[in-house]
Amino acid sequence: MGGGGSSTRRVTFEADENENITVVKGVRLSDSVIDRMKEPSSASGRSQHRSASGAVNDEELKKRIAEELALERARRDSEAQKRRLFGKLLERERISSNEHLTRAILRERAATEEERQKAQRFARQLEEKDRELKKHDAYYKEQLARLEER
């Protein structure tokens, strides 16, 4: 009976040899349930010996136990539902967190790629300037050699 699922139990009601006490087997009852069951439902029901009111008391006891079992089952179902809802909430938070992290990673990758492309552009421009400088250097050296020949 522990955990989130509902379970079924066999509950038996038996009378002792004098038929003064009803024995309920297979049910655990809290102190508060036992105290409530001890409360007299009517003053005359207590004073009479095992007569027709005794049968009514058995029926009342069975009814009270069934109600308590139903309340306990409802409480367990409610707790299980709370756990499921909390689990769903945690899952949504995890998914949301993962989405934020994924977006941040994608932004960083895009920024890194942009920086890489910018560096490549600057490298090509630098190579182009270097080629121009070498062409100018070769031209001026050639001009200088001509002037020296004259």
From TrEMBL:
Recorded coiled-coil stretches: none
Cellular component terms per the entry's GO annotation: MICOS complex
Pfam family for this entry, one: MIC19_MIC25
Keywords of this entry: Disulfide bond, Lipoprotein, Membrane, Mitochondrion, Mitochondrion inner membrane, Myristate
Domain of life: Eukaryota
InterPro entries per UniProt: MIC19/MIC25, MICOS_subunit_Mic19
The keyword Iron-sulfur is annotated on this UniProt entry: no
Keyword Ribonucleoprotein part of the UniProt annotation: no
UniProt cross-references to PANTHER family, sorted A to Z: COILED-COIL-HELIX-COILED-COIL-HELIX DOMAIN CONTAINING 6 (PTHR21588), MICOS COMPLEX SUBUNIT MIC19 (PTHR21588:SF18)
Protein name per the record: MIC19 protein
Gene this protein is translated from: Chchd3
